[in-house]
Design goal:
The chain is of the alpha+beta class. It is built from two helices and 18 strands. A hairpin with a 5-residue loop joins strand 4 and strand 5. The radius of gyration is 25 Å and the shape is globular. 23% of the residues are buried. The N terminus is likely disordered.
C-alpha cells in the first residue's frame, strides 16, 4: 500500500511539474506574439481642409484642431495672420492634414516594406526631419505638397493655402496623388509602405497608412493606420 501511495504521489508531482513547464512555454509564445503585435487606428476623418488631426502612437488618442499658421490667398495675395493655436492636450507623435503629415520632432525613414511585423528593430538609413515648405516655391505639379486651407473662394480662383507649413516629406511620399483632369482633381491612395520614426530620446515607432477611404463605406477622406511605438531603452 505504501508503495502504491508513493507511486501515486510521484505521478501527481510529475504532472504538476510538467503542466507548469508547459505553461512556461505557452507564456513565452504569448509574449512573443504580443511583441510582434501592432495597433490599428481606423477611419480617421481627414475631410476638413483647415484642421490637423494629432495622433498619440502610445494610446491611440487623437485630437483635431484648426490650423493656426499664416495663410496666403492665391488670387489676391492677401495674408491671413497666424492665429492663437488651440492647446493640444495629448502627447502627439504624428499629425495629418488631409493627405499631408508632420511629426512632433521625429525623423522618418521609408523602410520600403509593406509588412509592419517584419520591422522588429530600428532600421538603419537616412532619416528625414520635418521642414518648412514655403508656398511661393512650391507647386502642386512639382510635388503635391501645397496645403489647401480655405476653399470658400475657390470659384473665384482665390484659394487659401498654408504660407509656410511644416511637413515631413518622407511621410507625405507614402501617399500617391493621381491627377484626374476633372473633379476631384486628384485621387489619393496609399503605397502601404512602413515608415520608421525616430526621436532624439531614443524612442521610435513604425507607422503605416493602410487605407485612404472609409473601410466600411468606401467614402474618401478617411485614413486607417497601423502603428507600433517603442519606448526608449
Amino acid at each position: 500500500m505504501r508503495i502504491i501511495a508513493y507511486l501515486t504521489m510521484l505521478a501527481v508531482t510529475f504532472c504538476v511539474t510538467a503542466c507548469s513547464y508547459s505553461n512556461y512555454f505557452v507564456d513565452e509564445e504569448e509574449e512573443e506574439e504580443e511583441t510582434d503585435a501592432y495597433s490599428t487606428l481606423s477611419n480617421v476623418n481627414i475631410s476638413a481642409y483647415d484642421t490637423w488631426t494629432y495622433i498619440n502612437l502610445i494610446t491611440g488618442e487623437t485630437e483635431t484642431h484648426p490650423d493656426a499658421t499664416e495663410w496666403i490667398y492665391s488670387g489676391t495675395g492677401e495674408i491671413r495672420e497666424a492665429q492663437t493655436a488651440e492647446e493640444i492636450t495629448i502627447d502627439w507623435h504624428v499629425a495629418v492634414h488631409r493627405y499631408e503629415f508632420k511629426t512632433n520632432g521625429a525623423s522618418v525613414l521609408n523602410t520600403g516594406l509593406t509588412d509592419i511585423t517584419s520591422v522588429t528593430s530600428l532600421p538603419s538609413g537616412t532619416y528625414t526631419a520635418d521642414e518648412i515648405a514655403p508656398y511661393e516655391t512650391e507647386s502642386v505639379a512639382e510635388n503635391g505638397y501645397v496645403l489647401s486651407m480655405d476653399l470658400s473662394g475657390m470659384m473665384d480662383g482665390n484659394v487659401g493655402y498654408a504660407h509656410n507649413p511644416t511637413i515631413n516629406r518622407t511621410l507625405c511620399d507614402g501617399i500617391t496623388r493621381t491627377a484626374t483632369g476633372s473633379m476631384p482633381p486628384y485621387v489619393y491612395s496609399t503605397t502601404a509602405q512602413v515608415f520608421a520614426l525616430q526621436w532624439t530620446d531614443g524612442s521610435w515607432a513604425t507607422f503605416q497608412v493602410t487605407h485612404t477611404a472609409n473601410t466600411s463605406t468606401s467614402v474618401s477622406h478617411y485614413m486607417t493606420f497601423n502603428y507600433k511605438y517603442h519606448a526608449a531603452e
